[in-house]
Structure formats: structure tokens, C-alpha cells
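Q: What would this chain look like folded?
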Amino acid sequence: MSIWGKIGGAAAGFLLGGGPLSALLGMLAGHALFDRETREGAPEDSVAFTVGLVALTAKMARADGLVTEDEFAAFQKVVIVPPEEAANVRRLFDIARQDVAGFEAYARQLATLFKDTPGRLEDILDGLFFVAAADARLHPAEMDYLRAVADIFGISDSAFNRLCRAYGGPCDPDPYAILNIDPDASDADVRAAYLYQVKENHPDNLTARGAPAEFIKVATEKLHMINDAYRQITSEREAGRGLKAG
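A: My prediction, written as C-alpha cells:
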């Protein structure tokens, strides 16, 4: 069973934790959107991760002052939504977008829930970047929103800039930033950084950190970027050595 079907069954338990995400689940349960017969509880971390990502994505839809059908389509590129659950998930997205709670409240609760596992917070920010870049550009208002979320999450400037470059932000995509390695690093260090990023961003590792299986699309896309960055670096270095030899 996917996380979407389980959220309905987990809502009652998660509501006990309080906070804006719990209130959002309460509104969802009130609309009876998910199968009320489902009583399998999803792990609380997965519920928080998924609902938090939905809420922050929905709030980001207002960042550029426009709300269009494309925003939900972009969200569906981030996570796998079964066709039979699409209408339900869209309702959750719309409830979050219209909720009077500001995005800061959602972000602060997530920062508290995942204070001991900061990698999950970076995974959520990664997903937000993915959605923001879905139309092939990052709008200034979206960048301000992403920066504000990152600040609440306590994500470092270097980690934020790495994601910014990876998704073609105001700066050009930098393969070294994607691998989180200095351009002057040795070939051996570049390869070590590449292997580390592959391991850190492998879908199995993301799942172990609490990301739901539906987040696999972001993990797969991130691995593509990591592989492309490594190929670009090695190709440019080999070409540079060839020029020197000539």
C-alpha cells in the first residue's frame, strides 16, 4: 500500500503530536478523502515527510503570485501518485495551499521533527527545488521562498548554493557544486566525492532516512545530475590534459 493510502489510517495517531501539519491532516480527515477502512499506520516520519513536502510545495505555488494547474503537475513529477489517489492528493494540495497557516509554521514543525536527522530536511528542500525548477527556471520569488525555508531548516549556505547550482539557479550549474567538492581537488578526491554523493542519494538510503518510496523520482533525477556532473568533470580534465600534452 502506498503512503497516500496509509496517511488516512495514520492521521489519528499523528494528530496527537499537534502543530500545523497535524491540523492539516485533521482537515483532510474531515473531508473523508482517504479510505476510512484503512487502519495500517504509516511510520510517523514518513507521514511527516510526505505531508510536509505537500504543504511546502503548495505554499510555494503562491511564491510567484500566480496559482496554475502546472504547480500540481510539477508536484506529481516529484513524487509518485497512484492514479486512483490523484484526486485525493490534489485535495490535500489545495487544502494546504488555502490553509491560513503560513509556510513558516510548517517549516518550523518539520525542523523540530527532523532536528536529529538533518539529511531529511535537505531531502525536502531538494524536492522543493525540483518543483520550482520544473518550468525550466527559478523565479526570484521562488528563490526567496527556498532561502527562507532553508534558513528555518538550518541548512548551510554551502548546501543551499549546491542545490541552487544543481537546479540552474541564478548561478550557472556547477558540476563541482553538485559533488560538493572544490574545483582544485585531485582526481582521487573528485571520485571519492562522486561515490559519496551516489551513496547518499541512492533511493534505498533516502528511504532509510524516512523519505517515502514515492520520493523515488527526485532520487533518480538527483543521481542523473550526479552522474552527469562527474562525467563533465572527468571529460573536461581529460581534455585539459590533452591540450597540455599537445
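The chain has a mean pLDDT of 77.
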